[in-house]
Amino acid sequence: MAHRQPRLVLLCGLPGAGKTTVAKRLVQELSAVRLCPDEWLAGLGLDLFDDEARERVERCLWQHAQALLASGAVVVLENGFWERTERDEKRLQARAVGAAVELCYLPVPMEELERRIALRNNEPGSVVLTAELLRNCQNQFEPPTQAELDLFDAPLL
Ligand SMILES: Nc1ncnc2c1ncn2[C@@H]1O[C@H](COP(=O)(O)OP(=O)(O)O)[C@@H](O)[C@H]1O
Ligand SMILES: [Mg+2]
Question: From the CB of 24, is ligand 1 less than 6 Å away?
Answer without folding.
Answer: no
